[in-house]
Amino acid sequence: MARRPRTLLVNPPLWNVYAPHLAVPLLTTVLRDRGWPVTAFDLSATHLRWMLSAKTVAGLADRYDRADDLGLDPEAVDEARLLLPSVRDGIEDAWVTVHDTASLHDHAAFAAATRTIGNALVCHSAAFAGFHCDLRSNRQYYSERSSASVLTASGDPDRNPYRWAFEELLPPRLADPSLGLVGISVSADTQLIPAMTVAALVREHRPDLRIVMGGNYITRVAGRWRTRHPFFDLVDDFVLYEGEDAIVALCENLFEGSTRPVPGRSTLAPDGQLSFAPARDVSLATLPAPDFDDYDLGSYLAPGPVLPVLASRSCAWDCAFCSIPFASNRYRHRDAATVAEEMLYLAQRHSTTSFMFVDEIMTQRTLREVSAELVRRDAGLHWYGETRFSAGLDDKLAAQLHASGCRRLDLGLESYNQRVLDLMRKGTKVEHVEANIEALLGAGVPVHLFCITGFPGETEEEARRTPEFVERVLRRSTEEFALPYSTSVNGPFILDLLSPVGLHPEQYGLTVLHPGPHEDLALSVDYLTDAGLAGAEAARLAAAADALPDTGRSAPLQHRGLVGESEEYAFLRCVHRTGVPPGRPTAHPAAFAPVRGTSLRLAEGVTWRVSADGGVGLYAAGADSILRLPRRWVRLVSELDTGWQFDNSDNTIVDVLCTLWTFGFLADRRKHAVPLAAGTDLRVRVPPGWRENVDLTTGRARLTSSVTGREVALNVHAFLLWLEHTADEPAAADSELVADMVRVELLQANRRIGPMASGDKTRTGRQVSA
């Protein structure tokens, strides 16, 4: 009997970088069970490790040298050149640190490692025109909403960062002469351009291979095709809906002459017409355990591994905003004993105790039965998943969940208004929300609350009520239940064309603004509404809803290259009881007060460059601060590099030196400081780089520093006080609040050195380094 051809299954970027995706391991185990040779390749994880390597980071300099030819942003390149040396020297250690469970306890070491990784992403972003890389939604020059744009991207290594990377990473995987089929799994729009880039390279290197593409996102996109689509230039077959039965049937069709239908197959008939076979439910009762053996489980960006498992498929509900029922088959659940056995098997095989349920929703029945099985077996595992608010989620069930190892539950709150929940067809009751949360927190299970702002018909008052409730929940979780691991996310309503709202917009008072043929792949669109919040207003309120503590006493560092903290980290922190990282480390509030004649110099690890416009950029690795100064300060920075004797006769120079000292650019910071005590004769001003976003209704402001990446929220009183310090002579103020603002670098302070020279006043406040 002839040897069967091998299948290469590929999971392209950008998917979850913190844990493996389940689709390819499930397809792998099904093929192996049926005797088909298969290799699983998590290109998303491989690509991440390649990006975050010293060799790749160092190679970015070659692209910066070609900045004009590649159309790169000069300012972004200047910033990246400042960061590159510290990233190159520190990225390998950073990778080791974030994979060490002990680093979850060492918040300073963990923060330093994630800063280095974030800066590596900034360096990659600068190397491609229109590219922004933050591990969640790598936006780039080409659009995944346009078929023409996707196909052009697949062949362009200059503006498609995936093509540039895959030309090195993919060919070795295609060298196996036994290969017959390449399968590419696409679950999200972030994977489409990388997936088609893989297909293009397979066509170039191995035109003899058959290419099939499937996954949730392909189901959404290809399900709308009625004629031949241009993607068939690169892909032979598309599989819609579930793929476990389809991949086996396809191999039998292609290589053994079988004529049985391939469920969900979309392909071209001999006459060039589109042919589609009906999809079919996969039996979950016979679904084998996923096969992760081909994966390097140490290549994900978290200690672990945290392995995905499923107890059910699809969703039993039909919320108006959601397209999950459209893109999946009917709801089914697995036997709880089988699920528990699978978790124990995977735990032993891969030396882990951490799992995440990837069910669209864990029903109350699933929660009750699976947790009971894990308790009965004394499994010693930890897990998290997603469920919904309901009457039966009481103290008894919550205690059983915790006993089974549940250390986080994600819940779709969406809105804390019954009228809005009813508009959403959510099927939940506000009266159950607080009781469920109380039961979970009381049992030691942190919660994560999903919220939506601006569902059609929602008023501004209703939209504001939800984050106010969430803020109370998070505060109680920490202060009353000693669970600082509860989190939330609030996003604006997005009109999904395949959701009930998208299919029947007139029923919700919406007018769809179709993007036109140039965005033929668009699944989300803009809209006009007859009542309630407009899209732009919903986006603004949602952005303001993720509350940060007033004056930033523990405000988290939102790094310029990273977006928040992953759910895997929040889960693992609870498992290991590490506490949560504090905000950006800062010293006690102090003022800059060097003595005349003192030698000042740049701190160790500070790099600086003169940019094309003649200004000077500085990066302080120790403080992770980036600062740009006008060209008139180039000489001062140059002299500080070797040592400069302080002369306090010029207030303008003192202002700049105070800024450098505040953000960690000067050596011996404590030596040049005096306590910020009442009665001290100080000049207090706003340092450069702060941008404010003000909610005009509440007066609350969200401030972001371009120097440090810090975000801080201020109430009305604090914001007005901060604004006063942008003036030449701020009024007398709340000294305690001023001190706290100095501590978090919202303000900078230095000891007065005497009367200012005429004309110097315009250089105070924000204009110190304008």
From TrEMBL:
<feature type="domain" description="Radical SAM core">
    <location>
        <begin position="301"/>
        <end position="558"/>
    </location>
</feature>
<dbReference type="Pfam" id="PF04055">
    <property type="entry name" value="Radical_SAM"/>
</dbReference>
<dbReference type="InterPro" id="IPR051198">
    <property type="entry name" value="BchE-like"/>
</dbReference>
<keyword id="KW-0411">Iron-sulfur</keyword>
<dbReference type="InterPro" id="IPR034466">
    <property type="entry name" value="Methyltransferase_Class_B"/>
</dbReference>
<dbReference type="GO" id="GO:0005829">
    <property type="term" value="C:cytosol"/>
</dbReference>
<dbReference type="InterPro" id="IPR058240">
    <property type="entry name" value="rSAM_sf"/>
</dbReference>
<dbReference type="GO" id="GO:0046872">
    <property type="term" value="F:metal ion binding"/>
</dbReference>
<dbReference type="InterPro" id="IPR006638">
    <property type="entry name" value="Elp3/MiaA/NifB-like_rSAM"/>
</dbReference>
<keyword id="KW-0489">Methyltransferase</keyword>
<keyword id="KW-0949">S-adenosyl-L-methionine</keyword>
<dbReference type="InterPro" id="IPR007197">
    <property type="entry name" value="rSAM"/>
</dbReference>
<keyword id="KW-0479">Metal-binding</keyword>
<dbReference type="GO" id="GO:0051539">
    <property type="term" value="F:4 iron, 4 sulfur cluster binding"/>
</dbReference>
<dbReference type="InterPro" id="IPR023404">
    <property type="entry name" value="rSAM_horseshoe"/>
</dbReference>
<keyword id="KW-0808">Transferase</keyword>
<dbReference type="GO" id="GO:0003824">
    <property type="term" value="F:catalytic activity"/>
</dbReference>
<protein>
    <submittedName>
        <fullName>Radical SAM protein</fullName>
    </submittedName>
</protein>
<keyword id="KW-0408">Iron</keyword>
